[in-house]
Each structure stands twice: as C-alpha cells, then as structure tokens.
Design brief:
Structural class: alpha/beta
Strand content: 15-25%
Bound molecules: nicotinamide-adenine-dinucleotide
Radius of gyration: 20 Å
Number of domains: 1
Order of helices and strands: EHEHHEHEHHEEHEEHEEEHEEHEEHH
CATH topology: Rossmann fold
Largest sheet: 7 strands, parallel
Strand order of the largest sheet: 3-2-1-4-5-7-12
Helix content: 40-55%
Shape: globular
CATH superfamily: NAD(P)-binding Rossmann-like Domain
Length: 344
C-alpha cells in the first residue's frame, strides 16, 4: 500500500534557503514551493543591466528551478502579498508544515528600500499566518528570523534569552515578525518554530554576502574589500548545516513553540576568512574600506538550546565549507563569467 506523504509548503521556496530545503525534503515529503521569483530572483536579475556577473546569477537561479523540477517539487509562481490568492493556494495545498521564507533578505537593501522590505517581508508574513489559521492538519509554522535582531552584541556570545535591540530596518522587521508569529500562537494556537540563522553561505547563493563577494573578487583577480580592520567576527554558517538543523526541528516535538539560534556556533574573524581564501588564491589582494555603522558588530550565537532540545550539531567549519564553495565556483565558472581583466 502506498503511504501518503506529509505535505510541506515553502513560501519564498525558490530562494537560497528555500530551494535547498525543498530538495532535501522531497524524498520523504510532498513539497510545494510558492515564489514570485521577483525579489533577489530571476525577474529582478533580468531587469538589471546585462553583465557577466548578472548572467552567472541568472544561470544559477535557473539551475535552482531545474533542480526543483527534477525533485518533483510543485512550483507555484505567485506573489505572497496577494492575500486572496495566497489564502486560496494555501487551502488547496493544505500543508502539515508551513515555512515562511519570503522576504527582502538583506540588511543593506532593506535600509535602502524600507517600503518594499515591509511589503515583501511583513505583509507576506501576515498573509501566511492568516492563511494558516484554517489549516486543520498544520503541525508547525516555521519563521526564519535572523541574528540581526540582536543588534550590537554586548558579549561575544548571545543566546535566545539575550535582549534584542535591532539596528536598522531589517532587524526591526525581523523582530516584528517574531512577535507576529508569537501573537498568532497566543490568539489562534498556531504551533510555531522561529529560527535565527547568521551569515549563511553556500552553493547557488546570489545574495552577495561577504563570502560570496570575496570569492567572486578573488576569481576576477580584484582586491577583496574589507570593511574596517577585519577583526570583526561572524558566525559563518554553511547552508547544509542550516538545512539539517531545520529538518531536525521539523521532526521534533521539543522544538514546538520555541525560538532557536541555528548557526555553526563559533564566530570567526574576516581576517581568518581571508587566510583561508589565500590557500586557494595565494596572490589575493586586500583593500580596506570604512565599515557601515548600521551593520551591528556581531559574534557567536550559542547553539546549546538546539543541541539540547533537538540534538543538532554543525558539521561544516569555515575551512570545510569554503573548500566546498570554492570548488563549486571553479567547476561552475567554466564559461569564465569571473575572468580577470588581465586575462581578457
Ligand atoms: N541567507 C541568510 O544569511 C539569512 C540569514 C538570516 C535570515 N535569513 C532569512 O531567511 C529567509 C530566506 O532567506 P534566503 O537567503 O533564502 O533569501 P532569498 O532572497 O534567497 O529568498 C527569498 C525568496 O522569497 C521570494 N519572495 C520575496 N518576496 C516575495 C513575495 N512577495 N511573494 C513570493 N515570494 C517572495 C523571493 O523571490 C526569493 O526567492 C529570509 O526571511 C531571510 O531574511 C537569511
């Protein structure tokens, strides 16, 4: 007899985290992805100037879709800001697990475009939460928050009880998002798990966070631009570790109605990151620029709670994760999107 698979819905599921999660879950679950493909995705890159870098990003965004299709993930091209349409779709899919990942997932972009960030992050979250009220079989609503809601770290390590004092639009909206999720739990008993990742990196990312920017500059033989003195530390987290942690939380009842940090669990400095890069790019050049005051000084996110409640432990230190990512770039860049000016 064929066993009916449980259903997973991922709003923003063609994004960096979403497509990786969908691909990992598709063997054991019936997975549906909803995405507008409009924020940090194909439509937005197609509307930007045509250059090698954007062509590379479009290529890997198409690759995400190909991977989703090959994994038999159902893909719905739908803007989650549209309350009526999203409610109808959520009812039709009727998921057991609901992941809300849609957002403007970048602090700098959020500070430049607060309205669109509110619309795509908070409006979409409100629609997802409200649509989930009618789901009789819902086991969990997952919300992806961020380390940015802690603001400036006052100690080298923060845990989930540390007071949150977000700096800037992105962190403020993540803080609001967490409170909305908790509010829906208080009023409608929506079962939730909130996850706070930090400094994610990995293959098929187009978000241009520090590791991606550094690797792409190194491939082009351009100097890497370091904000400040390079001593600043971040809890760099490889995408595979995050996805494994998310799935552990999905499968455990102990994560119900809880907030978790979900990172590698040990911060490393930008200078350490550069030293790892130099193994692969010995001639790497470095240029120092002024740091953005709206970017909080962060550090380590304690992983004790995730370890204790769902037995999570990370596997990819920076050395291991960087090796994977650089090898991927070197294989992927066979069409020489990142060729150095001197080689042209
Ligand atoms: N990547 C990180 O380092 C990181 C760290 C902390 C938290 N997060 C959070 O995790 C979540 C996912 O991040 P990501 O890195 O996958 O981001 P991403 O930008 O790669 O993916 C977001 C996806 O949401 C979609 N989307 C946005 N607005 C939409 C709308 N109105 N309707 C439908 N789809 C819409 C986009 O098209 C995109 O595919 C976000 O909430 C982000 O803030 C990410």
């Amino acid at each position: 007899m064929k066993i009916k698979k449980e259903k997973v819905l991922i709003i923003g599921g063609s994004g960096f985290i979403g497509h990786n999660l969908a691909i990992k879950l598709c063997k054991d679950y019936d997975v549906s992805v909803v995405d507008s493909f409009d924020v940090n995705n194909i439509k937005s890159f197609k509307s930007k100037i045509s250059n090698n870098q954007n062509s590379f990003y479009i290529k890997i965004l198409n690759e995400r879709i190909k991977l989703l299709k090959e994994s038999n993930v159902k893909i719905y091209n739908q803007d989650a800001r549209n309350y009526k349409k999203i409610s109808k779709l959520v009812d039709k899919i009727n998921p057991n697990y609901f992941f809300h990942l849609a957002a403007v997932a970048h602090a700098n972009v959020s500070n430049k475009n607060p309205f669109s960030t509110f619309d795509n992050s908070v409006r979409t979250l409100e629609n997802s939460l409200d649509a989930s009220r009618s789901l009789k079989k819902l086991k969990r609503f997952f919300y992806l928050s961020s380390s940015m809601l802690y603001g400036q770290f006052k100690k080298t390590t923060v845990n989930e009880n540390t007071i949150c004092e977000p700096l800037g639009i992105y962190g403020a909206l993540k803080f609001a998002g967490e409170k909305m999720v908790i509010g829906y739990n208080q009023v409608f008993k929506t079962p939730y798990t909130i996850i706070r990742p930090s400094a994610l990196y990995g293959e098929r990312c187009v978000s241009r966070r520090v590791i991606q920017i550094f690797i792409e500059s190194a491939l082009k033989d351009e100097p890497v631009l370091v904000n400040g003195n390079g001593k600043e530390k971040l809890d760099f987290t490889y995408i595979g570790d995050l996805i494994n942690g998310m799935i552990k939380m999905m499968k455990s009842n102990k994560s119900k109605n809880q907030i978790f940090n979900l990172t590698y669990g040990k911060s490393r400095s930008i200078l350490e990151l550069i030293n790892i890069l130099k193994i692969y790019f010995p001639k790497l050049k470095i240029k120092t620029i002024k740091r953005d005051k709206l970017m909080p000084i962060r550090g380590t996110l304690s992983m004790k709670k995730a370890k204790n409640l769902v037995n999570f432990s990370s596997e990819y230190n920076l050395e291991r994760g960087m090796k994977k990512m650089i090898n991927w770039y070197r294989q992927k860049d066979n069409e020489k999107y990142f060729i150095s000016k001197n080689q042209k």
